[in-house]
């Protein structure tokens, strides 16, 4: 058995794990990142794409802004659609100049991996089966089993950044955590199309046949979504059927409809809400999707991951530099305040925009009134904008 040591053992090379490792390096704290998949898999997987203002500021202030500033698409507004009409929410005007930036999660991942490797970071891809040990005690460890051999890494702390399907959360003793969960009776069919975006901003469309979202990834790639059934079979969606439905739901009274292009990727995105409390057990800290899942309508997933590890990095710095554990003790409660507000917003956006199959006629009328209100009241639009560009990061 090979043994090694690190200050912080990190499981998972998603936005949470890599950004944490980068922060820790800037603070002179050693970490090892263990990732089950290949580097190529991590860099190519199509995931989220909207960065809040605070996430952009974080990437810039930690030296990761150069390609983001060149290739990221800054959006100062979004559009909501109702009855084939578009209503613009002027995000920047309503938030004192804040904006969102469209930059694929896999681009953030590429930048982070390149930077960690340039800084001689210890990233271990395809690392085999990972398990965590001794998290309730003073010296936890990670074990990595591969090809019949086992490596052991002794750590001061472990960060569980291994996403929704990871092993860190299930390693915490039963009864120590409470799971708060809520399911939605629909999912999204998402496509990536080789087509130049024909709108400048994202369009969230409420339609009687179901919600549709017009988004993008680059000057030549459009990203589109359709509300579908929770267990939708993606094979039932031929390219022709997908485009027809996108035209029906997104098409506007002024004649605009999405430009078609070759469909490069098609998949189903589930919709659920989950929060784990607390986000810590002993010396194991959970961050990102390992601790919480939000429905994608609020575009919060990647941003919550970034906010968690910001709090964790500051707390670990206080521990190592100032010998203070107060921030580590507050990690979970501080993160959860933001997480619950993101859940509130994401649920609200979801219920505002989707077709609610089983809703009573009263509930449908109420939903339309809510859409009418948010598209006609500056106060309501300002609340949407404040949440969409991201609440301030608090410590
Ligand atoms: N051992 C090692 N690595 C693992 C294991 C394991 N047992 N299980 C999962 N992983 C890896 C995954 O392969 C993935 O690369 O952990 C990483 C988790 O990354 P993400 O799922 O991207 O989670 P996170 O970093 O929290 O970022 C949240 O991802 O799902 C999107 O919309 C979500 O944008 C949000 C973001
Ligand atoms: C995306 O571009 O993938 C995207 C944009 C906004 C969302 C969700 C996903 O709310």
CATH topology (level 3) name of the largest domain:
FAD/NAD(P)-binding domain
What would CATH call the class of the largest domain? Alpha Beta
Any ligands, ions or cofactors bound here, and which? adenosine-5-diphosphoribose, P-hydroxybenzoic acid
Number of domains: 2
Mean pLDDT: 97
Largest beta-sheet details: 7 strands, mixed
Poorly predicted runs are: none
What is the rounded distance between the termini? Answer: 40 Å
> What is the assigned CATH homologous superfamily of the largest domain?
FAD/NAD(P)-binding domain
Shape: globular
- Helix coverage percent of residues? 25-40%
Structural class: alpha/beta
Secondary-structure arrangement, i.e. CATH architecture of the largest domain: 3-Layer(bba) Sandwich
Keywords:
single chain; 395 residues; alpha/beta; FAD/NAD(P)-binding domain; D-Amino Acid Oxidase, Chain A, domain 2; 2 domains; 23 strands; 37% helix; binds adenosine-5-diphosphoribose; binds P-hydroxybenzoic acid
Describe this structure in words.
- With 395 residues, the chain is α/β, with parallel strands linked by helices.
- The protein folds into 2 domains: 2-49 and 104-177 and 278-353, FAD/NAD(P)-binding domain; 184-270 and 355-389, D-Amino Acid Oxidase, subunit A, domain 2 (D-Amino Acid Oxidase, Chain A, domain 2).
- It is 37% helix and 27% strand.
- It has helices at 15-26, 39-44, 53-61, 66-71, 91-94, 105-118, 168-171, 239-250, 301-322, 326-353, 361-376, 378-389; strands spanning 2-5, 8-11, 31-34, 50-51, 73-75, 78-82, 85-89, 100-102, 122-124, 129-133, 141-146, 149-154, 157-160, 178-183, 187-194, 203-206, 212-218, 221-228, 262-269, 272-277, 280-281, 284-286, 292-293.
- The strands form 5 sheets. It has a 7-stranded mixed beta sheet, with helices on both faces.
- The mean pLDDT is 97.
- P-hydroxybenzoic acid (PHB) is lined by residues 48-50, 202, 215, 223, 296-297, 299.
- P-hydroxybenzoic acid (PHB) binds at residues 48-50, 202, 215, 223, 296-297, 299.
């Amino acid at each position: 058995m090979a043994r090694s040591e690190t200050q912080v053992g990190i499981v998972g090379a998603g936005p949470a794990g890599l950004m944490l490792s980068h922060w820790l390096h800037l603070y002179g704290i050693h970490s090892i990142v263990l990732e089950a998949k290949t580097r190529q898999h991590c860099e190519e997987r199509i995931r989220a794409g909207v960065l809040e203002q605070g996430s952009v500021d974080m990437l810039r202030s930690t030296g990761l802004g150069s390609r983001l500033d060149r290739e990221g698409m800054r959006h100062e507004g979004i559009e909501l659609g109702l009855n084939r009409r578009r209503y613009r929410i002027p995000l920047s005007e309503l938030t004192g100049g804040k904006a969102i930036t469209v930059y694929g999660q896999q681009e953030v991942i590429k930048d982070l991996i390149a930077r960690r490797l340039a800084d001689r970071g210890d990233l271990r891809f395809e690392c085999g089966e990972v398990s965590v040990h001794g998290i309730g005690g003073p010296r936890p460890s990670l074990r990595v089993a591969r090809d019949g051999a086992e490596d052991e890494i002794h750590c001061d702390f472990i960060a569980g950044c291994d996403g929704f399907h990871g092993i860190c959360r299930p390693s915490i003793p039963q009864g120590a955590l409470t799971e708060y969960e809520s399911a939605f009776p629909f999912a999204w069919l998402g496509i990536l199309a080789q087509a130049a975006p024909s709108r400048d901003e994202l369009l969230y469309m409420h339609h009687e046949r179901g919600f549709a979202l017009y988004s993008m990834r680059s000057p030549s790639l459009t990203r589109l979504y359709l509300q579908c059934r929770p267990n939708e079979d993606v094979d039932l969606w031929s390219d022709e059927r997908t485009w027809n439905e996108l035209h029906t739901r997104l098409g506007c009274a002024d004649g605009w409809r999405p430009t078609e292009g070759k469909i490069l990727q098609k998949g189903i995105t589930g919709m659920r809400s989950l929060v784990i409390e607390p986000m810590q057990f002993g010396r194991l800290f959970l961050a990102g999707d390992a601790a919480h899942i939000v429905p994608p309508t609020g575009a919060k997933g990647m941003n919550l991951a970034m906010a968690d590890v910001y709090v964790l990095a500051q707390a670990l710095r206080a521990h190592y530099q100032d010998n203070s554990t107060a921030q580590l003790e507050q990690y979970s409660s501080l993160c959860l305040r933001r997480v619950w507000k993101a859940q509130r917003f994401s649920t609200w956006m979801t219920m505002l925009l989707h077709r609610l199959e089983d809703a009573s006629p009263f509930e449908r009328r109420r939903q339309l009134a809510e859409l009418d209100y948010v598209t006609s009241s500056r106060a309501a639009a300002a609340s949407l904008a404040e949440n969409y560009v991201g609440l301030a990061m608090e410590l």
